[in-house]
Amino acid sequence: MSTTHKPGAHGAQKDGDNTTGHEWDGIRELNTPLPTWWLYVFYATIAFALVWVLLYPAFPGTGWNGLLGRTARTDIAEQLAADRAQNEPVLARLRGMTPAAIIADPELRDFALAGGRVAFGNNCAGCHGAGGQGAPGFPSLADDEWLWGGKLADIQHSIEHGIRAPDDENTRMNQMPRFLADGMLTQAQVNDVAEHVLSLSGRAGNAVAAGRGAAVFAENCAACHGEQGQGNQEMGAPALNDAIWLYGGDKAAVVRSVSFSRAGVMPAWATRLDPATIRMLVVYLHALGGTQE
């Protein structure tokens, strides 16, 4: 029994017309050509792809940049060069001025604040936070407490030469002793001095231990941190009598600091950033935190 195809809603062809040669249970598969317009569009996309391959980079790792020689990298490089050329007159002025002189000029101050914000986001926010709020081990730059001083000259020196930067002979340098690790104090003395440190901000849990720790503190810690734990910016010694803690202010963190010391490192940016960028950062940070004249 043969099956014939009758014209229907889809314009089916009758029996005997062009087929693929396939037949299942008496049903033959017709070979209906694609619409001409669709084929033309398909061929056009192939032609477009071939032209694109010739004009633009299309073979990763071969160095082929296309007949036009245009890449996103070159486009961005040209745009950056154009931006630098446009800003160069202002940047040249910044290089020849002190941060104080920049702040005194309203136009330059606004430019420096905007540029410093961008430079901070690109180079500093990864450690100090997008708003300069800091993180454990990375000091906040948005308050009025400064480890090494918050004057313009202090900030500039810290940025240019870093903190304990191994590649800069003028870097900020200090080193807290490892009192327990090096056998300078016993575990009991470390516990007592930690209680005393906590007592400086009214948080001691053991008044008797804090009392014993006062003598240990006076003998071993006061020379850097001050008799009242007020800190010493000339030495980079943080204040211990407030609620600001670089590595945590609970007892375990204090014991850890006393026992094994801390030694964070900040890069020296003088060889990494343009002098104009450093001055913009100084102006921005000076405005971001509590200002010191």
TrEMBL record:
Pfam families: Cytochrom_C, Cytochrome_CBB3, FixP_N. Binds 2 heme C groups per subunit. Its cofactor is heme c. C-type cytochrome. Part of the cbb3-type cytochrome c oxidase complex. It is found in: Cell inner membrane. GO terms for cellular component: plasma membrane. The gene is ccoP. It comes from the Bacteria. It comes from Teichococcus oryzae. Its main location: membrane. Component of the cbb3-type cytochrome c oxidase. Residues 111-201, 208-289 form the Cytochrome c domain. Coiled coil: none annotated. Heme c 2 binds at M176, C221, C224, H225. The chain crosses the membrane at residues 37-59. One of its GO terms (molecular function) is electron transfer activity. This is Cbb3-type cytochrome c oxidase subunit. InterPro entries: CcoP_N, CcoP_N_sf, Cyt_c-like_dom, Cyt_c-like_dom_sf, Cyt_C_IC, Cyt_c_oxidase_cbb3_su3, Cytochrome_c_Oxidase_Subunit.
